[in-house]
Amino acid sequence: MTITIRVDIEIFETVTYSKISRSYISVSSIKTTIERYKKASSDSLNTTSITEINAQYYQQESAKLRQQIQMLHLMGDSLSALSVKELKQLENRLERGITRIRSKKATLI
After folding, report:
1. Cβ atoms of 43 and 2 closer than 8 Å
2. Structural domain contains residue 94
3. Cα dihedral across residues 26, 27, 28, 31: positive or negative
4. Do residues 37 and 4 touch, judged by C-beta distance below 8 A?
5. Exposure pattern of 49-62 as b/e (b: 16+ CB <10 Å)?
6. Residue 90 is part of which domain span?
7. Are 2 and 44 in contact (CB under 8 A)?
8. Predicted confidence (pLDDT) per residue in 41-99, tens digit
9. Would you say residue 82 lies in a domain?
10. How many domains does the structure of the chain reveal?
11. Where are the beta strands (DSSP E) in 63-106?
């Protein structure tokens, strides 16, 4: 986007300069400016896809962080605010974790 703005400003400056000095604008400089403008426009399309990929990545990261925050809350003293269903889920997770720890301990001993 910045490149596009710079190209637009250059076109504006060229046109303004030609009006002030009453000089002839060379066709080749306009063509090169237009080519740079087209290139900048196509680059901005590629930037859009990169932006979308970044947005998806950060959405996934925020979902992971939300889940980690929720787990940290469950590990803390805020259990009184949980419903019965959430307490059952927490109990199941804890039991599975304890089972994995015991099996790992048994394999090490």
Report:
1. no
2. yes
3. positive
4. yes
5. eeeeeeeeeeeeee
6. 77-109
7. no
8. 666 656 667 777 778 888 888 888 888 777 777 676 667 777 888 888 888 988 999 99
9. yes
10. 1
11. none
DSSP conformation class of 105: H
Give the whole-angstrom CA distance, residue 25 versus residue 107. 83
pTM here?
Answer: 0.32
Report yes or no on 45 lying in a domain.
Answer: no
pLDDT at 17 over 70: no
- Is 23 a domain residue? no
Coil, strand or helix: which one is 109? coil
Residues 40, 73: Cα–Cα separation, whole Å: 48
- Residue 22 is predicted with a pLDDT of 43
User: Is-contact 64 72, C-beta < 8 A?
Assistant: no
